[in-house]
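Long-time lurker, first post.

We've been arguing in lab meeting about whether zinc ion would sit comfortably in this protein at all. Half the group thinks yes, half thinks no, and nobody has a model to point at. So I'm putting the question to the forum: if I give you the sequence and the SMILES, can you give me back a predicted structure of the complex? Inputs are below. Any interpretation is welcome too.
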Amino acid sequence: MRHVKYCEDQRMPSSRASLLLAVLSLLPAIAGAAEGAHEHGVATLQIVVDGNMLQANLEIPAHDVVGFEHAPSTPGQRAAVETALARLQEPGRVIAPTPDAGCVATTTQVEAAPGRGNDVSATAHAHADDEPSHADFRLAWTLRCAQPAALDSATTGLFTLLPELAQLRVQVIGPLGARALMLARPDSVIEFAAD
Ligand SMILES: [Zn+2]
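Top reply:
Settle the argument with this. Predicted structure of the protein with zinc ion, as tokens:
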């Protein structure tokens, strides 16, 4: 009797559990992208949909944003970093979910930029003394969506904003599945549904 009950309990499916599994299965790929060759011309955008919340994380080599990867040392370089951050944070510029979903950004965070004290990626990339260090712009958004059932795609204006950017590596995890896709200039549409 006890054994049977135990089996039944373990068999209970959970959409949250399957989402977690999907996240875990993608983690090695995400970690590899983060600490491996940060490749100039290629940015990474991770999108996680959970209930009515959409979380987006963007990582771009600073080379593709401002043309340098050291801390800004002149007023012009400092202004370039601030201007780039302001443009990246414009609502709907980096990620604009389909209007049908009624998403509104609740938070926008700058996690790293050249010269920012929390730019851990710059130190993380400097593994060997003879390797030039790299730096990334990293930003995160949280959006709340009034109609999450309609969340099946988004558009990005990154290629318009950044002339140096050639490709955007996208990872999407959500109720429609988990998928990885590569956008090439001038693609702007990110489909959330797995093929
Ligand atoms: Zn670099």
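For your lab meeting: The radius of gyration is 19 Å. The chain has one domain: 14-191. Whichever side wins, do check it experimentally.
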